[in-house]
TrEMBL record:
<dbReference type="InterPro" id="IPR012258">
    <property type="entry name" value="Acyl-CoA_oxidase"/>
</dbReference>
<dbReference type="GO" id="GO:0071949">
    <property type="term" value="F:FAD binding"/>
</dbReference>
<dbReference type="GO" id="GO:0055088">
    <property type="term" value="P:lipid homeostasis"/>
</dbReference>
<dbReference type="InterPro" id="IPR009100">
    <property type="entry name" value="AcylCoA_DH/oxidase_NM_dom_sf"/>
</dbReference>
<dbReference type="GO" id="GO:0005777">
    <property type="term" value="C:peroxisome"/>
</dbReference>
<protein>
    <submittedName>
        <fullName>Acyl-CoA dehydrogenase NM domain-like protein</fullName>
    </submittedName>
</protein>
<dbReference type="GO" id="GO:0003997">
    <property type="term" value="F:acyl-CoA oxidase activity"/>
</dbReference>
<dbReference type="InterPro" id="IPR046373">
    <property type="entry name" value="Acyl-CoA_Oxase/DH_mid-dom_sf"/>
</dbReference>
<dbReference type="GO" id="GO:0005504">
    <property type="term" value="F:fatty acid binding"/>
</dbReference>
<dbReference type="GO" id="GO:0033540">
    <property type="term" value="P:fatty acid beta-oxidation using acyl-CoA oxidase"/>
</dbReference>
């Protein structure tokens, strides 16, 4: 396991920084983590132990903004694109840029009016003679809420789910590769409205993103097929196949955080002394009520860690067998 705790980026007290300084720090930390683990396309595609080891790095609970960037970037964006590399090898340079975090990948699926019912999204990609026209038909179809602003000096590209319209016919939802912003500004036709910060969280530039008749080349359609699926719902689940794996990844820093809590609580309980019946102070760890809480946290953290690592075997075996339920 890498020791990133000695890096100056993780030695900063982020609580003394402004919101934007904290966001910039999270992006810098995410780049450091990703470059330190040096993941390959195969690592992301096949869910290798190295892939999961990055998610389990004990440094990540210190900055959930950093982890949020990495989780969506790797699991959803890179993972989705990587699936189509055999058919679209021209995307390999982009994926390498993403794996180095020279470019941030964004996953735009749900909309302001379609969260749990994302199957019913309204964003359209209409077939044009030379490509597609990506459009947000109304405010409720605005993509919600991945971070898409250019405010922190990193280019961003998105995997955008939209309804494929060919000759006036809705042929189901597809993913399209869409440039969002350069290191300084949005691309024409793409609008990003930054959302207010949620209190008590690691801040990021979460946004609402819309498209105004954005032209996309034919190569933007991931997979390239214009055919209507025989079963639209099964086809939709096949498109979003990375989401269950991404959901598992989210648990990693929470389990590591539980270990942090157990260690801090245990050390404090040994150091903190109080007088009880006699003149000599005793550590509060001698109290059964304190022992129970600390030992429960240690046990839970250990068991969850073993359970989580067993996912390595399951995901490696099942990553090519979809659907898995």
């Amino acid at each position: 396991m890498l020791d990133l705790s000695k890096n100056p980026l993780f030695d900063l007290n982020s609580r003394t920084l402004s919101v934007d300084e904290r966001v910039a720090l999270s992006y810098a930390r995410a780049r450091l983590v990703l470059r330190s683990y040096n993941l390959s396309i195969s690592d992301v595609q096949s869910f290798t132990p190295k892939f999961w080891a990055m998610h389990l790095d004990p440094i990540l609970p210190l900055d959930f903004g950093c982890f949020t960037i990495l989780a969506a970037h790797l699991n959803l964006t890179v993972g989705t694109i990587a699936r189509y590399l055999p058919q679209q090898p021209d995307l390999i340079p982009l994926v390498k840029s993403l794996l180095n975090l020279d470019t941030v990948g964004v996953f735009l699926l749900s909309e302001r009016g379609h969260g749990l019912d994302a199957f019913n999204i309204e964003t359209t990609a209409t077939k044009h003679k030379n490509g597609f026209i990506l459009h947000t038909p109304r405010e409720e179809a605005t993509k919600f809420m991945p971070a898409t602003t250019p405010a922190f000096g990193i280019p961003k590209v998105a995997v955008v789910m939209a309804r494929l319209i060919v000759d006036g016919e809705d042929r189901g939802s597809r993913f399209f590769l869409v440039p969002i912003c350069t290191a300084k500004e949005m691309y024409p036709g793409v609008t990003s409205t930054r959302l207010p910060r949620r209190s008590g969280t690691s801040p990021l530039d979460f946004s609402m993103t819309s498209f105004n008749h954005v032209f996309l080349p034919a190569s933007a359609l991931l997979g390239g097929s214009l055919d209507a699926p025989t079963d639209a719902r099964s086809a939709w689940w096949d498109e979003v196949w990375r989401i269950p794996y991404g959901s598992m990844a989210v648990a990693a820093p929470l389990m590591q955080g539980l270990k942090h809590v157990a260690y801090i609580g245990g050390q404090y309980s040994l150091r903190r002394h109080v007088r009880v019946h006699g003149p000599t102070p005793v550590p509060i760890m001698t109290f059964p009520t304190q022992q129970l809480a600390v030992l429960y946290a240690v046990a839970a953290g250990t068991i969850l860690d073993v359970w989580y690592r067993s996912i390595n075997l399951w995901t490696t075996a099942s990553s090519t067998a979809w659907p898995w339920w």
